[in-house]
Specification:
Elements: E1 3-7, E2 14-18, E3 23-26, H1 29-35, E4 39-45, E5 49-52, E6 55-59, E7 64-69, E8 75-80, E9 85-89, E10 101-105
Parallel strand pairs: 3-10
Antiparallel strand pairs: 1-2, 2-5, 3-4, 4-9, 6-7, 7-8, 8-9
The structure holds zinc ion (ZN) (2 copies).
One zinc ion binds at residues 8-10, 12-13, 69, 71-72, 74.
Length: 131
């Protein structure tokens, strides 16, 4: 079983996730502003993530919200209410064994102070088949 654990910076929030897909990088304005650079996240079905501790949710658009640790404010989760999945920020994972990076989303909105040269697929927005 593909199972991963993770936690926030202070350890007040921990989680266990089953069936995480590969990691996507998102360069949209919203993710850049929330993470300080760009987002690295992977997702699985909501019911396959078990969270312990207090998570504070902040709406960032009509459908999207970010989950932070209520104590240390470390960003942990990204949620779109239209999707059956919940995304975990890769930096919060204890280990990324078995996960690889899959590609870049919203590169049209990326910062001009860095380049993407890892050879992974790049999409100007979010490809329809990759929800
Ligand atoms: Zn914390
Ligand atoms: Zn984004």
């Amino acid at each position: 079983m593909n199972q991963h654990t993770g936690q926030c910076q202070c350890g007040a929030v921990t989680y266990r996730a089953e069936g995480l897909r590969d990691i996507w990088f998102c360069h949209c304005r919203q993710c850049r502003s929330l993470t300080g650079h760009y987002m690295a996240a992977c997702r699985t079905e909501r019911e396959r993530i078990d969270v312990t501790g207090e998570v504070r949710w902040t709406a960032v658009s009509q459908r999207a919200s970010h989950g932070f640790c209520a104590s240390c404010s470390a960003p942990l989760f990204w949620s779109n209410s239209e999707l059956p999945t919940l995304s975990v920020l890769a930096g919060s994972l204890d280990s990324t064994t078995g996960l690889s990076a899959d590609g870049h989303l919203y590169v049209a909105e990326k910062g001009d102070y860095y380049s993407i040269d890892d050879g992974l697929p790049q999409f100007a927005g979010r490809p329809a088949e990759r929800l």
